[in-house]
Amino acid sequence: MKKLRLYIDTSVLGGLFDTEEPKRVNTAETLLQLISDGVYEGFISLLTIAEILEAPEKIYEKLKDRISESGLIILEETDESVSLANVYLKDGAIPEKYRDDARHIAIGVFHGVDYIVSWNYKHMVNIRIRRLVNSANLRMGYSPIEIISPEEVTGDG
Q1: If phi over 0 gives left and psi between -120 and 50 gives alpha, with beta otherwise, what is residue 91?
Q2: CB-hemisphere CA count at 13 Å for 99?
Q3: What is the DSSP letter of 43?
């Protein structure tokens, strides 16, 4: 059986260090363990790496180790994914100020992942965004995408 392919955005990796919601730490750990165990295929992008590089060095070092241990595969941003992200922005799916959120989704869509996994409920994990994103995806010749929370993957919801 084909493994589900999950694009993990930066918010999920940041959940490993959430001091306000310890449950998020457990959920993020569980998700990375499921990827490491081969239950799912996990992906991040060079955009994710760039965002991680902006974190304090102590967090960056820990994330670098966790990424390498979990077996996350790094996807590249392409001209086509940038164009798709621009369509999301033009259509109002994602505000221009949050361009990187559109880029994360477009990278996953372009590379054919099954799910985008995020804790960004405002600009990614909600019905309105999914509808606008999938309308653009279909119009541009891409498959629809599900944008879900980590709890939906781990069953911690």
Answers
A1: alpha
A2: 8
A3: E
Q: Looking at the DSSP assignment, which residues form a beta bridge with residue 115?
A: 6, 146
Residue-wise pLDDT tens digits, 42-52: 999 999 999 99
Of the candidates 68, 67, 74, the one whose C-alpha atom is nearest the C-alpha of residue 13 is 67
Give helix then strand counts, H and E, for the chain. 8, 5
pLDDT (mean) for 123-151: 97
Element spanning 45, H or E: strand 41-45
Q: What is the CATH number of domain 5-154?
A: 3.40.50.1010
Cα–Cα distance, 69 to 122 (Å, whole number): 30
Q: Is the pLDDT of residue 157 over 80?
A: no
- How many other CB atoms are found less than 10 A from the CB of residue 31? 26
What predicted TM-score, i.e. pTM, was given to this entire model? 0.94
Whole-number Å distance between alpha carbons of 87 and 76: 19
- For 39, how many CA atoms within 13 A lie in the half-sphere containing its CB? 9
Q: Give the tokens for residue 100.
A: 């990187």
Q: What is the DSSP letter of 155?
A: T
Tell me the two tokens of residue 21. 């919601």
The residues spanned by each domain of the chain are: 5-154
Q: Using alpha carbons only, how large is the chain's radius of gyration in Å?
A: 15
